[in-house]
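User: Predict the complex with NAP.
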Amino acid sequence: MSTIGPIPWVEAGGARIPLLGLGTWDLRGRTCARMVEQALRLGYRHVDTAEMYDNEREVGEGLHASGVKRDDVFVTTKIWPSHFAPPALERAARECLARLRLNAVDLLLLHWPNPQVPLAETLGALCKVKRDGLARHIGISNFTVALIEQAVRIASEPLVCDQVECHPFLDQSKVIAECRRYDMAVVAYSPIARGTARNDKVLARIGAAHHKTAAQVCLRFLVQQGIVVIPRTSKLERLAENAAIFDFELGAGEMQEIAALAHRDGRLVDWAYSGRTKWD
Ligand SMILES: NC(=O)c1ccc[n+]([C@@H]2O[C@H](COP(=O)([O-])OP(=O)(O)OC[C@H]3O[C@@H](n4cnc5c(N)ncnc54)[C@H](OP(=O)(O)O)[C@@H]3O)[C@@H](O)[C@H]2O)c1
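Assistant: Here is the predicted structure with NAP placed in the model:
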């Protein structure tokens, strides 16, 4: 298997985050460990998991089996909202590390906002976890513009990203602008729209002009804006396909044409997870 070149990164809040990572939601058991190991052998340097994915043990296995040095990999995990009260948050973070077999993660995120626990308490605990050395950086996920602002005001440590659903079919311009305002990276989850980008005619036509697939154009559209992407695949050949996005550039007209695919209601992920239905 040939390897991919060095992966560019973005800097935000003092963190250097590789622009491409492997998403692992729904990867289980041996498939998960194998995909993480192979991705790292191929040249990926960023892996995204969460306590809710119930695969941190396998992600840890893949990390250790790859032989890649710990400091060369950026590992993100996320705390589930039911663990947001301070003692539970610290306990959950320690349990994540035990499952991953790591002393610290590179990035620890609040997975979804939880209106049942005061944000100040949760962020206080998250900042303490960072100060105690369990996480090199901290951040948030699924936070809206209003919640980003609150979180930045409260946190005593930099919040380095908001991980949100982001792909060409969803208008996330407000959240992206808010993150830039506070020196936070945008980490795009479901960056190929859960696989549906491959069927899009505009992306496929633009891809043909660059000898790239629709999925590659979709990912390129994001990284070309400095947005981190964490596509997930369970297929070895797609690891290489999803990584081959740094050797071509989309023109301004192509970027505009792709941006025009966005809708305000283009969300694929169910926000009912959070226990709230209306956000802004
Ligand atoms: N923070 C959050 O709340 C949150 C929520 C959702 C996801 N995430 C994170 O973001 C990651 C990615 O999001 P996601 O898994 O929802 O969606 P995604 O990465 O946009 O799409 C994954 C789907 O696309 C297919 N696929 C992968 N590469 C492809 C390619 N080159 N061409 C065509 N199809 C392709 C995969 O199928 P195959 O397996 O068959 O390749 C899979 O069905 C997750 O794994 C997770 O780590 C975070």
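DSSP finds ten helices and ten strands in the chain.
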